[in-house]
Write a structure and sequence with these properties.
Layout lengths: L1 H12 L5 H14 L2 H13 L6 H14 L2 H13 L6 H13 L3 H10 L5 H13 L3 H13 L6 H14 L2 H14 L6 H13 L3 H10 L6 H13 L3 H4 L2 H12 L8 E6 L2 E6 L8 H29 L3 H7 L2 H11 L13 H8 L5 E4 L4 E4 L1
Antiparallel strand pairs: 1-2, 1-3, 3-4
Protein backbone atom coordinates (compact mmCIF):
# COMPACT_ATOMS: atom_id res chain seq x y z
CA UNK A 1 0.00 0.00 0.00
CA UNK A 2 2.84 2.41 0.80
CA UNK A 3 4.07 2.08 -2.79
CA UNK A 4 0.73 3.29 -4.13
CA UNK A 5 0.73 6.23 -1.71
CA UNK A 6 4.27 7.14 -2.74
CA UNK A 7 3.41 6.93 -6.43
CA UNK A 8 0.32 9.05 -5.90
CA UNK A 9 2.35 11.69 -4.06
CA UNK A 10 4.89 11.79 -6.89
CA UNK A 11 2.08 12.01 -9.43
CA UNK A 12 0.35 14.86 -7.58
CA UNK A 13 3.64 16.77 -7.30
CA UNK A 14 4.27 16.68 -11.07
CA UNK A 15 3.99 20.07 -12.74
CA UNK A 16 3.41 18.53 -16.18
CA UNK A 17 1.53 15.29 -16.67
CA UNK A 18 1.50 13.45 -19.95
CA UNK A 19 -0.76 10.69 -21.21
CA UNK A 20 1.86 8.19 -20.02
CA UNK A 21 1.78 9.65 -16.50
CA UNK A 22 -2.00 9.39 -16.24
CA UNK A 23 -2.07 5.91 -17.80
CA UNK A 24 0.58 4.60 -15.39
CA UNK A 25 -1.54 5.66 -12.41
CA UNK A 26 -4.77 4.33 -13.91
CA UNK A 27 -3.10 1.01 -14.72
CA UNK A 28 -1.72 0.74 -11.19
CA UNK A 29 -5.11 1.24 -9.52
CA UNK A 30 -6.84 -1.04 -12.04
CA UNK A 31 -4.33 -3.85 -11.39
CA UNK A 32 -4.84 -3.35 -7.66
CA UNK A 33 -8.59 -3.80 -8.10
CA UNK A 34 -9.48 -0.23 -7.11
CA UNK A 35 -11.60 0.40 -10.18
CA UNK A 36 -13.37 3.42 -8.65
CA UNK A 37 -10.10 5.32 -8.19
CA UNK A 38 -8.93 4.25 -11.65
CA UNK A 39 -12.14 5.64 -13.15
CA UNK A 40 -11.78 8.86 -11.14
CA UNK A 41 -8.30 9.32 -12.58
CA UNK A 42 -9.63 8.57 -16.07
CA UNK A 43 -12.21 11.35 -15.65
CA UNK A 44 -9.56 13.66 -14.20
CA UNK A 45 -7.35 12.96 -17.17
CA UNK A 46 -10.05 14.10 -19.60
CA UNK A 47 -10.90 17.11 -17.43
CA UNK A 48 -7.22 18.13 -17.54
CA UNK A 49 -7.37 18.15 -21.35
CA UNK A 50 -5.23 15.02 -21.79
CA UNK A 51 -6.80 12.58 -24.25
CA UNK A 52 -6.69 8.90 -23.17
CA UNK A 53 -5.03 6.62 -25.71
CA UNK A 54 -5.47 2.95 -26.53
CA UNK A 55 -3.21 1.82 -23.65
CA UNK A 56 -5.28 3.84 -21.17
CA UNK A 57 -8.50 2.19 -22.33
CA UNK A 58 -6.91 -1.28 -22.24
CA UNK A 59 -5.66 -0.70 -18.68
CA UNK A 60 -9.08 0.34 -17.43
CA UNK A 61 -10.85 -2.49 -19.29
CA UNK A 62 -8.46 -4.99 -17.69
CA UNK A 63 -9.50 -3.70 -14.27
CA UNK A 64 -13.16 -4.12 -15.24
CA UNK A 65 -12.52 -7.79 -15.94
CA UNK A 66 -10.82 -8.31 -12.59
CA UNK A 67 -13.60 -6.68 -10.57
CA UNK A 68 -16.62 -7.68 -12.64
CA UNK A 69 -17.49 -4.08 -13.55
CA UNK A 70 -19.62 -5.03 -16.52
CA UNK A 71 -21.50 -1.74 -16.98
CA UNK A 72 -18.28 0.27 -16.93
CA UNK A 73 -16.75 -2.21 -19.36
CA UNK A 74 -19.65 -1.73 -21.77
CA UNK A 75 -19.31 2.03 -21.49
CA UNK A 76 -15.59 1.75 -22.26
CA UNK A 77 -16.37 -0.41 -25.30
CA UNK A 78 -18.57 2.40 -26.65
CA UNK A 79 -15.85 4.91 -25.76
CA UNK A 80 -13.29 2.86 -27.69
CA UNK A 81 -15.56 2.65 -30.74
CA UNK A 82 -16.30 6.38 -30.75
CA UNK A 83 -12.60 7.27 -30.38
CA UNK A 84 -11.28 5.08 -33.17
CA UNK A 85 -10.01 2.13 -31.10
CA UNK A 86 -12.73 -0.30 -32.22
CA UNK A 87 -10.57 -2.08 -34.81
CA UNK A 88 -7.58 -2.39 -32.50
CA UNK A 89 -6.79 -6.07 -31.87
CA UNK A 90 -5.45 -5.36 -28.40
CA UNK A 91 -8.66 -3.59 -27.36
CA UNK A 92 -10.76 -6.43 -28.77
CA UNK A 93 -8.69 -8.99 -26.88
CA UNK A 94 -9.13 -7.26 -23.54
CA UNK A 95 -12.86 -6.79 -24.24
CA UNK A 96 -13.19 -10.54 -24.84
CA UNK A 97 -11.34 -11.17 -21.58
CA UNK A 98 -13.61 -8.72 -19.72
CA UNK A 99 -16.81 -10.26 -21.08
CA UNK A 100 -15.63 -13.79 -20.30
CA UNK A 101 -14.70 -12.88 -16.73
CA UNK A 102 -18.10 -11.22 -16.30
CA UNK A 103 -19.84 -14.38 -17.49
CA UNK A 104 -21.10 -12.80 -20.74
CA UNK A 105 -19.79 -15.56 -22.97
CA UNK A 106 -22.14 -14.78 -25.88
CA UNK A 107 -20.88 -11.19 -26.08
CA UNK A 108 -17.31 -12.48 -26.12
CA UNK A 109 -18.04 -15.04 -28.85
CA UNK A 110 -19.79 -12.46 -31.07
CA UNK A 111 -16.89 -10.05 -30.66
CA UNK A 112 -14.30 -12.77 -31.33
CA UNK A 113 -15.87 -13.96 -34.58
CA UNK A 114 -16.42 -10.38 -35.78
CA UNK A 115 -12.71 -9.54 -35.47
CA UNK A 116 -11.18 -9.06 -38.94
CA UNK A 117 -7.76 -10.05 -37.58
CA UNK A 118 -7.05 -12.52 -34.78
CA UNK A 119 -3.73 -13.21 -33.09
CA UNK A 120 -2.51 -16.01 -30.83
CA UNK A 121 -3.51 -13.80 -27.90
CA UNK A 122 -7.07 -13.59 -29.26
CA UNK A 123 -7.40 -17.37 -29.46
CA UNK A 124 -5.71 -17.89 -26.09
CA UNK A 125 -8.07 -15.41 -24.43
CA UNK A 126 -11.07 -17.23 -25.87
CA UNK A 127 -9.76 -20.65 -24.77
CA UNK A 128 -9.10 -19.38 -21.26
CA UNK A 129 -12.51 -17.69 -21.09
CA UNK A 130 -14.37 -20.77 -22.32
CA UNK A 131 -12.57 -22.88 -19.71
CA UNK A 132 -13.51 -20.36 -17.02
CA UNK A 133 -17.18 -20.56 -17.99
CA UNK A 134 -17.31 -24.34 -18.33
CA UNK A 135 -17.48 -24.35 -22.14
CA UNK A 136 -14.78 -26.99 -22.44
CA UNK A 137 -15.76 -28.40 -25.84
CA UNK A 138 -15.79 -24.90 -27.31
CA UNK A 139 -12.33 -24.29 -25.83
CA UNK A 140 -11.00 -27.41 -27.54
CA UNK A 141 -12.63 -26.46 -30.85
CA UNK A 142 -11.08 -22.98 -30.75
CA UNK A 143 -7.65 -24.50 -30.06
CA UNK A 144 -7.88 -26.80 -33.08
CA UNK A 145 -9.25 -23.96 -35.22
CA UNK A 146 -6.23 -21.85 -34.29
CA UNK A 147 -3.80 -24.64 -35.22
CA UNK A 148 -5.65 -25.20 -38.50
CA UNK A 149 -5.16 -21.51 -39.37
CA UNK A 150 -1.41 -21.97 -38.98
CA UNK A 151 -1.00 -20.09 -35.69
CA UNK A 152 1.41 -21.72 -33.26
CA UNK A 153 0.16 -21.94 -29.67
CA UNK A 154 2.54 -20.60 -27.02
CA UNK A 155 3.10 -21.62 -23.40
CA UNK A 156 0.14 -19.51 -22.22
CA UNK A 157 -2.15 -21.14 -24.79
CA UNK A 158 -1.18 -24.59 -23.56
CA UNK A 159 -1.69 -23.54 -19.96
CA UNK A 160 -5.21 -22.37 -20.86
CA UNK A 161 -6.09 -25.62 -22.66
CA UNK A 162 -4.64 -27.72 -19.82
CA UNK A 163 -6.77 -25.77 -17.36
CA UNK A 164 -9.80 -26.47 -19.54
CA UNK A 165 -9.04 -30.20 -19.44
CA UNK A 166 -8.49 -29.96 -15.70
CA UNK A 167 -11.88 -28.32 -15.10
CA UNK A 168 -13.64 -31.00 -17.15
CA UNK A 169 -11.60 -33.95 -15.87
CA UNK A 170 -10.43 -34.82 -19.41
CA UNK A 171 -7.37 -36.82 -18.37
CA UNK A 172 -6.52 -38.36 -21.75
CA UNK A 173 -6.94 -35.04 -23.57
CA UNK A 174 -4.84 -33.27 -20.96
CA UNK A 175 -2.00 -35.76 -21.33
CA UNK A 176 -2.25 -35.47 -25.13
CA UNK A 177 -1.89 -31.69 -24.99
CA UNK A 178 0.99 -31.99 -22.52
CA UNK A 179 2.82 -34.30 -24.96
CA UNK A 180 1.89 -32.05 -27.90
CA UNK A 181 3.42 -29.07 -26.16
CA UNK A 182 6.72 -30.77 -25.43
CA UNK A 183 7.18 -33.05 -28.45
CA UNK A 184 5.67 -31.17 -31.39
CA UNK A 185 6.02 -27.52 -30.36
CA UNK A 186 9.15 -28.04 -28.25
CA UNK A 187 7.87 -25.88 -25.39
CA UNK A 188 9.40 -26.67 -22.02
CA UNK A 189 6.63 -26.98 -19.41
CA UNK A 190 6.78 -24.50 -16.56
CA UNK A 191 5.74 -25.04 -12.96
CA UNK A 192 2.20 -23.93 -13.79
CA UNK A 193 1.90 -26.56 -16.54
CA UNK A 194 3.18 -29.28 -14.20
CA UNK A 195 0.91 -28.08 -11.42
CA UNK A 196 -2.09 -28.27 -13.75
CA UNK A 197 -1.37 -31.77 -15.08
CA UNK A 198 -0.51 -33.10 -11.59
CA UNK A 199 -3.77 -31.69 -10.28
CA UNK A 200 -5.61 -33.33 -13.19
CA UNK A 201 -3.99 -36.70 -12.46
CA UNK A 202 -4.90 -36.33 -8.79
CA UNK A 203 -8.51 -35.40 -9.51
CA UNK A 204 -8.86 -38.49 -11.69
CA UNK A 205 -7.50 -40.78 -8.96
CA UNK A 206 -4.06 -41.24 -10.53
CA UNK A 207 -2.23 -40.22 -7.35
CA UNK A 208 0.76 -42.54 -7.87
CA UNK A 209 1.20 -41.28 -11.43
CA UNK A 210 1.03 -37.71 -10.14
CA UNK A 211 3.79 -38.45 -7.62
CA UNK A 212 5.96 -40.01 -10.34
CA UNK A 213 5.58 -36.86 -12.42
CA UNK A 214 6.55 -34.72 -9.42
CA UNK A 215 9.75 -36.75 -9.00
CA UNK A 216 10.57 -36.40 -12.72
CA UNK A 217 10.11 -32.63 -12.83
CA UNK A 218 13.28 -30.82 -13.94
CA UNK A 219 12.44 -27.85 -11.70
CA UNK A 220 11.93 -27.88 -7.95
CA UNK A 221 8.20 -28.30 -7.16
CA UNK A 222 6.53 -25.25 -5.67
CA UNK A 223 3.58 -24.88 -3.29
CA UNK A 224 1.09 -25.18 -6.17
CA UNK A 225 2.45 -28.59 -7.21
CA UNK A 226 2.59 -29.95 -3.66
CA UNK A 227 -0.82 -28.49 -2.90
CA UNK A 228 -2.38 -30.32 -5.83
CA UNK A 229 -0.79 -33.60 -4.75
CA UNK A 230 -1.84 -33.20 -1.12
CA UNK A 231 -5.38 -32.34 -2.18
CA UNK A 232 -5.54 -35.48 -4.31
CA UNK A 233 -4.30 -37.58 -1.36
CA UNK A 234 -7.02 -36.08 0.81
CA UNK A 235 -9.80 -36.68 -1.72
CA UNK A 236 -8.81 -40.27 -2.51
CA UNK A 237 -7.74 -41.12 1.06
CA UNK A 238 -4.23 -42.03 -0.03
CA UNK A 239 -2.53 -42.03 3.37
CA UNK A 240 0.64 -43.69 2.08
CA UNK A 241 1.57 -40.92 -0.34
CA UNK A 242 0.16 -38.25 1.97
CA UNK A 243 2.73 -39.32 4.55
CA UNK A 244 5.57 -39.58 2.02
CA UNK A 245 8.70 -37.92 3.33
CA UNK A 246 8.88 -35.25 0.62
CA UNK A 247 5.25 -34.20 1.10
CA UNK A 248 5.50 -34.21 4.89
CA UNK A 249 8.68 -32.14 4.78
CA UNK A 250 7.06 -29.47 2.61
CA UNK A 251 3.95 -29.42 4.81
CA UNK A 252 6.11 -28.97 7.90
CA UNK A 253 8.18 -26.26 6.24
CA UNK A 254 5.05 -24.34 5.26
CA UNK A 255 3.74 -24.48 8.83
CA UNK A 256 7.12 -23.47 10.24
CA UNK A 257 7.38 -20.44 7.96
CA UNK A 258 3.79 -19.46 8.64
CA UNK A 259 2.69 -19.85 5.02
CA UNK A 260 -1.05 -19.34 4.87
CA UNK A 261 -3.60 -19.07 2.11
CA UNK A 262 -4.50 -15.44 1.52
CA UNK A 263 -8.21 -14.83 2.20
CA UNK A 264 -10.36 -14.66 -0.91
CA UNK A 265 -12.22 -11.46 -1.70
CA UNK A 266 -15.31 -10.86 -3.75
CA UNK A 267 -16.39 -7.79 -5.68
CA UNK A 268 -19.90 -6.70 -6.54
CA UNK A 269 -21.05 -3.87 -8.78
CA UNK A 270 -24.17 -2.12 -7.46
CA UNK A 271 -25.52 1.02 -9.15
CA UNK A 272 -22.19 1.56 -10.91
CA UNK A 273 -20.14 1.40 -7.71
CA UNK A 274 -17.86 -1.48 -6.67
CA UNK A 275 -18.01 -3.03 -3.21
CA UNK A 276 -15.46 -5.49 -1.82
CA UNK A 277 -16.26 -8.33 0.60
CA UNK A 278 -14.16 -10.92 2.39
CA UNK A 279 -15.14 -13.89 4.55
CA UNK A 280 -17.04 -12.76 7.66
CA UNK A 281 -16.89 -9.14 6.46
CA UNK A 282 -17.42 -6.65 9.32
CA UNK A 283 -16.28 -3.32 7.90
CA UNK A 284 -18.89 -2.55 5.24
CA UNK A 285 -21.09 0.50 6.00
CA UNK A 286 -24.21 -1.68 5.58
CA UNK A 287 -22.79 -4.47 7.74
CA UNK A 288 -25.60 -4.50 10.34
CA UNK A 289 -28.32 -4.65 7.67
CA UNK A 290 -26.49 -7.40 5.79
CA UNK A 291 -26.13 -9.65 8.84
CA UNK A 292 -29.70 -9.00 9.95
CA UNK A 293 -30.92 -10.24 6.56
CA UNK A 294 -28.42 -13.09 6.68
CA UNK A 295 -29.86 -14.24 10.02
CA UNK A 296 -33.33 -14.41 8.48
CA UNK A 297 -31.97 -16.41 5.52
CA UNK A 298 -30.13 -18.87 7.77
CA UNK A 299 -33.33 -19.40 9.80
CA UNK A 300 -35.36 -19.92 6.61
CA UNK A 301 -32.83 -22.37 5.17
CA UNK A 302 -32.80 -24.34 8.44
CA UNK A 303 -36.59 -24.74 8.29
CA UNK A 304 -36.35 -25.80 4.62
CA UNK A 305 -33.70 -28.38 5.51
CA UNK A 306 -35.94 -29.87 8.17
CA UNK A 307 -38.86 -30.04 5.74
CA UNK A 308 -36.70 -31.74 3.12
CA UNK A 309 -35.49 -34.28 5.67
CA UNK A 310 -39.09 -35.06 6.68
CA UNK A 311 -40.14 -35.47 3.04
CA UNK A 312 -37.29 -37.90 2.40
CA UNK A 313 -38.12 -39.90 5.52
CA UNK A 314 -41.83 -40.02 4.63
CA UNK A 315 -41.35 -41.08 1.01
CA UNK A 316 -38.32 -43.33 1.36
CA UNK A 317 -40.52 -46.46 1.39
CA UNK A 318 -42.36 -45.50 -1.79
CA UNK A 319 -40.41 -47.12 -4.63
CA UNK A 320 -41.29 -44.75 -7.46
CA UNK A 321 -40.85 -41.55 -5.48
CA UNK A 322 -37.71 -42.82 -3.79
CA UNK A 323 -36.15 -43.60 -7.16
CA UNK A 324 -36.44 -39.88 -7.96
CA UNK A 325 -35.71 -38.29 -4.59
CA UNK A 326 -32.94 -40.67 -3.60
CA UNK A 327 -30.79 -40.08 -6.67
CA UNK A 328 -27.14 -39.50 -5.73
CA UNK A 329 -27.12 -35.98 -7.20
CA UNK A 330 -30.13 -34.88 -5.15
CA UNK A 331 -29.02 -36.58 -1.94
CA UNK A 332 -25.53 -35.12 -2.36
CA UNK A 333 -26.98 -31.63 -2.70
CA UNK A 334 -29.11 -32.05 0.39
CA UNK A 335 -26.30 -33.55 2.47
CA UNK A 336 -24.00 -30.72 1.49
CA UNK A 337 -26.14 -28.28 3.43
CA UNK A 338 -28.18 -30.42 5.84
CA UNK A 339 -25.46 -32.39 7.62
CA UNK A 340 -23.75 -30.80 10.63
CA UNK A 341 -20.41 -31.87 9.13
CA UNK A 342 -20.87 -29.58 6.12
CA UNK A 343 -17.62 -27.91 5.16
CA UNK A 344 -16.97 -24.36 6.32
CA UNK A 345 -17.05 -22.97 2.78
CA UNK A 346 -20.50 -24.52 2.26
CA UNK A 347 -22.02 -23.01 5.39
CA UNK A 348 -24.02 -19.94 4.48
CA UNK A 349 -22.93 -17.80 7.42
CA UNK A 350 -19.26 -17.94 6.34
CA UNK A 351 -19.59 -17.24 2.63
CA UNK A 352 -18.50 -13.89 1.20
CA UNK A 353 -20.71 -14.40 -1.88
CA UNK A 354 -23.79 -14.71 0.36
CA UNK A 355 -22.94 -11.37 1.97
CA UNK A 356 -22.75 -9.79 -1.46
CA UNK A 357 -26.02 -11.27 -2.66
CA UNK A 358 -27.77 -9.80 0.35
CA UNK A 359 -26.27 -6.36 -0.20
CA UNK A 360 -26.69 -6.23 -3.95
CA UNK A 361 -29.71 -5.97 -6.19
CA UNK A 362 -30.27 -7.95 -9.37
CA UNK A 363 -28.63 -8.21 -11.78
CA UNK A 364 -25.46 -9.00 -9.83
CA UNK A 365 -21.94 -9.43 -11.16
CA UNK A 366 -19.57 -10.99 -8.64
CA UNK A 367 -15.83 -11.47 -8.94
CA UNK A 368 -13.99 -13.93 -6.73
CA UNK A 369 -10.51 -12.48 -6.68
CA UNK A 370 -8.68 -15.52 -5.33
CA UNK A 371 -9.64 -17.54 -8.43
CA UNK A 372 -10.05 -14.65 -10.85
CA UNK A 373 -13.57 -15.83 -11.60
CA UNK A 374 -16.83 -14.01 -12.08
CA UNK A 375 -20.18 -15.31 -10.92
CA UNK A 376 -23.48 -14.01 -12.23
CA UNK A 377 -26.78 -14.15 -10.40
Amino acid sequence: MWRYRLCRQLFESMLWRTCVSWTAMISGYADKGDIDEALALFSGMEAAGEKPDMVTVVSLLSGCGQTGSLELGRWLENYALSNGFGDCVRVSNVLIDMYMKCGCINNAIILFYSMPQKTVVSFTTMISGCALNGEIVEALNIFFRMVKLGLNPNHITFLAILQACNHAGFLEKGLEFFDLMTKEYHIDPGLEHYSCIIDLLGRCGKVKEALKLVKKMPAKPDAGVWGGLLHACKIHHNVEIGRWDGVSRVRGLMKCKGVRKSPGQSHIEVNGKNHRFSVEERFHPECSRIYETLGVLVFTVTIAQNIIAEILNYWKDTQETASILMRPQIIGTFKKFVTPQARKEDRIEFHAHRLMKIFGETPIIMAKVCRKKIFTS
